[in-house]
Amino acid sequence: MILIIVTLIIFLILGMPIAFTLGFPTLLFILFNNPAWMTVIPQRLFYGMNSFVFLAIPFFIMAGEIMSESKVTDKIINFTDSLIGHVRGGLAHVNVLTSMFFAGISGAALSDVAALGSIFIPSMEKNGYTRKFSAAITATSSIQGPIIPPSLIIIVYASIMGCSVGALFSAGIVPGVLIGVSDILVILFLGKKRGYPKSDIPFSIKRVFNSFILALPALVVPIIIMGGILGGIFTPTEAGAVAVLYGALLGIFALKTLKLNVFKKIFKSTIKKTATLFLIVGFANIFSWVLAMENVPALLEKYVFGWTDNIYIILLIINFILLFMGTWLETAAALLLVGPVFGPALVNMGIHPIHLGMIMIVNLTIGLITPPFGVCLYGASSVSGCTVEEISKEALPYIIINIVVLFLITFFPQLSLFFPKLFGFI
Length: 426
Hints:
single chain; mainly alpha; 21 helices
């Protein structure tokens, strides 16, 4: 196992693609320790990707691409601005709320940064906010994407742990909203302290209603997805396909912002992102299989968690480990790496797998905005032109309060389990 760990660290330092960072050390270990296992590798590689629930992934990716190309964000921005734009720091609040609604469409943090960053960062700078602050709030609010359903990372976790996608989708509602609310609280504090501007347009019920009607076609997307899954009308895969069809019809016929020649770009992007994720899944399955064959989960339970039976201390340890891993590993890869290792041990200790899923996912998504390797920090840097260091300093208060939310989610399981129980999943 030392060979795997050392090679894994070297590959990470060298910046190798994460699929090969997981796969190559595992193959080396097999070659040196049990070459007969090499005949099983193709089967395990395919087995890792051969999951029915993974069929939903390309559909949700494509739905997000279609919505981005359809410019539905303009309607959502106008609606959120009518709700909260009149408050001090209003445009920053609008950024967070738009991310919350957009999370129900894209399901990915980087998509949020790319789609909204190019709109909000120049607009906020023009209205009196610093560029680095605008980039920081765009990055930090984007982590709602992988938590609020639909979420690609939730589908990955469901496959690893054999959980219901619907149960996990419903479990992500409260944690995702809490992340958004915590960001708004920080903006309220900083807005008053720094004297951030507010919109000159007063609050008006009529404006809210009119902008809501215009945004309604876009806001219906998460309702279709969640309503269909929770109501037992769709499987997650069918819900993804319906979202693609609805988004295409909306963009082409209703909004008239989606041209047919754009679909080539959408298909290419969807295929590329899906193939990348599936490669990671395949190699991660080989990695976790080797760990299982070497009895690592049982050893971990015995020697790492065996010194205490206090579940709160164990959860605290897990949070620190996951927060650290989230800073230097892509979310899906980190989940595929630690899920098969920690998951069985923690479930055996009495932690509900749905609750554990939210702990892991929130931890790893906070890592997306945590220096030194937070992916969303680099995405915001690319869009804004600010350095990662500048954005990281501005993002620090949001990271801290998000960690507070993480501990609330960790030590109060009902925050995650309320909706799954309400909808009869558990």
